[in-house]
Amino acid sequence: MIKCKLSNILGERKLKVSDVARATGINRNTLYNMYKEETVRLEIDVLDKLCVFFNCNIQDLLEFHPNE
What we know:
With 68 residues, the protein is mostly helical. It has helices at residues 6-13, 17-24, 28-35, 44-54, 58-61, and strands at 2-4, 62-64. The chain has a two-stranded antiparallel sheet.
């Protein structure tokens, strides 16, 4: 299973989903679903914008758990 770590990143940086949506142009609902780990699929451009915004790598946003 792939887990999204967006909620951890937002918590560490004291940001809200709406802050990221405004700054990146990513739909708020898309970000909220990632935050709640309810996303079924992710667009490459969304991941790209998040990596640029947070100045991070894809591994900082997503992690793979093989046994879940």
